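Complex record, two chains
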Amino acid sequence: MAGIEMKNIVKQYGDGFPAVNDVSIDVEDGEFLILVGPSGCGKSTLLRMIVGLEDITDGDMIIGGKKVNDLAPRDRNLSMVFQNYALYPHLTVYENIAFPLRLAGKSDSEIDEKVREASKTLELDEHLDRKPGNLSGGQRQRVAMGRAIVRDAEAFLFDEPLSNLDAKLRGQMRTEISRLQKRLGITTVYVTHDQTEAMTLGDRVAVLKRGVLQQHATPRELYENPANLFVAGFIGSPPMNFLPAKVDGNRVELPFGTVTIPEARAAKAQGRDLLIAGIRPEHFEDASVVDSDKVTDEATFTATVDVVEWLGNEAYAYIPFEAPDEVREQLTQLEKDLDGESLRTQLVVSLDGASRISEGDEATIWVDARKIHLFDPSTGDNLTIDPDNAGIIPGGNTMAKAEEVGEQQDGVKPSAGSSPS
Amino acid sequence: MKNKTTIGTWIGFVAILVWCLLPVVWIISLSFKSVEETAAGSAQFLPKDPTLDNYRDILSNGDFLAALRNSFGIAVIATFLAVVFATLAAYAIARLEFKGKRLVLSLALAIAMFPVVSLVGPLFDMWRTFGLFNTWPGLIIPYMSFTLPLAIWTLSAFFREIPWELEQAAQVDGATSWQAFRKVIVPLAAPGVFTAAILTFFFAWNEFVLAISLTSTTASRTVPAQLSYFVGPDPFNPPYGQLATASVVVTVPIIIIVLLFQRKIVAGLTSGAVKG
């Protein structure tokens, strides 16, 4: 077992496509790190550089204190679970799991012992004699993991391992992976584009955009203190709401009304004209179900609810609003970066299940003003960030840098699409 | 309606069977007829008086046995070498990016397009100079060069089908490139390898023009060429029975080999490699 240190890693493909740009991430021994980002953000490329399947253009890859830039994959002693499992179809489950051990020249008895142990852990005992072609998706996934845990690798690498499973199985396997990693205590790097997996599995999460590191922090830090608009929009489901805002003293003018925010936050956002306010859906509530002492004029507004989705424990209310052009452009771009498609600017409000608000109602909504973040619309930076609780944020304006790289990437001929997501 | 289709299918099936197998049955039937019967002129379909004399004669014919040995040796060696070279070449073509990849492929195709007859003359002269005339290598080399293109094309198509991830997985699991190739890629390409092997073997086993032109004695003459020397004592009365028997004897190995390899050509071997 060993830590993995990435120092200023750069990957540029032969045709000039800059896939990964100056990324530095430190994975501690035994840590579970998630690399997350929308498709094309270079997270898989980064993982493949760790394992040695991609050459490193520049920077240092250090595993267990040893620089491994020029080592072949087999000399790095890492094990990897591929997105499509990559099981050997001509071998039985037993032989698939035994494959790395056989290559290492272990004795038959030792191989048998280890394979049995791995298959017991993953509950594959009754499938050992079957071929991968006869297994279900979840079973294949477990065989792929068996192959990874059977030898004493320095670290586990996962490349979107759950993306081919259906929703229910995905949830189960997610828990299983988490449990396995905690038990084995082995350094793990896990690539995903699914923010739920990122939040639930990771000790720390590195958010990438266009091959530029945006923020590297614990899930809680990412959620509560996103470094910029991109991270704020990416982490959380349903995503954070972005509203045009004007700050005057400690009063913030939103499309629906004016709320009062704490002095300390307001101070960081003074002297600016138009800002973007970020409010998570759960920081809104139906005023009628909130404790009456919290409900003041400064913290409530009324709006017409367009659609309500009632889920039992909670309900999502959608409230459309008009955004000024300056902000709209930034928001549309952001939506595109997040692999989404913005049809309209609307507010998503998470309401208590007990709320009686229904479609078409004029509702009084309370907002938790302490949790409002304010972003600079031109750079995307979070102005109200608490730097002590935001993990590692690379210097410079990372969002703007990602934009710049994005333009370079788009400039490379479309044939460069060979880069994996 | 459904009945009609079934009946139609069966009629077509039987027609094709008769069309294809009647000559074969005729040859087999001939091989059991005595000389008197084949020379009589008004031969009937089934032998009147079945005899194994023809088989006894042919299997005690030293020249024929030598030719059979040559055929076997030459076909097996040519097949083996062609498949090994084609596997390596096809792997490189499917996996590696190198300059002139297209050139290699089109050149291979161009070679396959040359009619064998046009090369017989030059080869004859060259082989005499090099001392390859009437030797095994003298036939193995041209057989390989005529079968390699097809083998390379077949195999590179098979290699392209194999997910590259499997090879990378093997490398991460600790395999060298060679181990990954041998333990993962080749077993998966086995159907392709066997297809290429069968095609090559057929070509080498049945080839006539080169075999008759580049050999002069039974030291290297193969069966198809040797059969043309089965003329018998009377030029107006060829030994049909013997010829038919020889044909049967050379066809049997082919059938055995096809049956053996057919098992290996299992389609869909790669299913389940990737994707859920």
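Note: Chain A has two domains: 4-222, 237-384.
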